[in-house]
Amino acid sequence: MSSKFPNTRVRRHPERGRYDPETIYGIIDEAWHCHVAAVRDNLPVVIPTLHVRIDDQLYIHGAVAAGLFKDMGRETPISVAITHLDGLVLARSLYNHSANYRSVVIFGIAREVVDADEKMAVFHALADRIALGRWEDARIPNDIEVRTTRVFAIPLDQASAKIRSGPPADDPEDMDRATWAGVLPLRATYSTPIADPQQVPAIPLPDYLTRLVTPDA
Amino acid sequence: MSSKFPNTRVRRHPERGRYDPETIYGIIDEAWHCHVAAVRDNLPVVIPTLHVRIDDQLYIHGAVAAGLFKDMGRETPISVAITHLDGLVLARSLYNHSANYRSVVIFGIAREVVDADEKMAVFHALADRIALGRWEDARIPNDIEVRTTRVFAIPLDQASAKIRSGPPADDPEDMDRATWAGVLPLRATYSTPIADPQQVPAIPLPDYLTRLVTPDA
User: Fold this and answer.
1) Residue A139: C-alpha distances to residues A199, B49, B98, B169, B173 (Å)
2) In this predicted model, what pLDDT tens digit does every residue of B11-27 receive, in sequence order?
3) Residues 36-65, chain A, touching B (beta carbon < 8 A)
4) Superfamily, domain A14-169+196-213
């Protein structure tokens, strides 16, 4: 473990900090995308990208030519944040307005994955992440595609989660105010799948995707 | 304009780049939260936070004691990313799987706002951002609350947007494959507001919030 990285303990609202892998992995696995920050010419750069977790490693990938990835060496210090915004918290005072959220912040050295088998395992995990069944259904990457995609692994041993949930926390002197207080919950939902208009002949949505987009069915 | 910052032109998929304020501001204004990256001890740090835009400035705020904000000086180089994930793009080949998204990446010097009136204008904008009517309904910040909240302004003159939309782009040789291809749209939606259980007497959800959570009503 690198000792150069900052302490991963949550400093502000320490009661919101969580450090167990189950919580951290759960937040990571539920998210489709993350935000990756690196230092370029002594300045910070942050971009969104897709990710997948395998065991205690987070994997991100991008085209060889892509902005941030183009600049990353074999070992690059990065920070990654993954955030689920679960709701707006409306308090009686504006000062105590907040958000309900579950976030993970990761520090680590991103190691470029150069082994073709490890790369392929990441692509397989990315397909499984969409839905079990996608790997078997779609065409798997060929040698050129594997070579032109850069994959980076970040160990998850310097990660922390921060969670806020529940109602607003107002000051006692504001409790009698006639202001509606509570939570406006937010969540990401699927809407109706849109088949590629070029899809000929019409191929029905496979079961593994139907289950994904209608989780209550 | 600082010339030290990287070129904000989109390098990978340049056809997805947008530089007009209307597009950039629209993406910023629709989002509740952003990811802010800074450099600390030569290492990148990224955290989620809430934001609001006023004209050509992005404002972020946090408690004086909060992690990243505690470390930020009066002028700190930062990068901010705001991302809407609009859908998963499922291609016939795994390599061409993608995401539909609208993102903005901003580079700039975060300037600490120390003027109480400018700070109050930001708090007002944050309340209006939730819904017009919230500022008049809730208790506005008092002097101590204004002092213990740090606010930073980032100019939006070095920002770029990147947008992907539409169906998958498969290679010609994959087009006849019997794999379902298309888009699984994602969107953030409100669910039923949850009143604070301590709310006494029962206060009905005000009209300005009812309109927010039921936009189609």
Assistant:
1) 15, 39, 14, 14, 11
2) 778 888 999 999 999 99
3) 36-48, 50, 62-63, 65
4) Electron Transport, Fmn-binding Protein; Chain A (2.30.110.10)
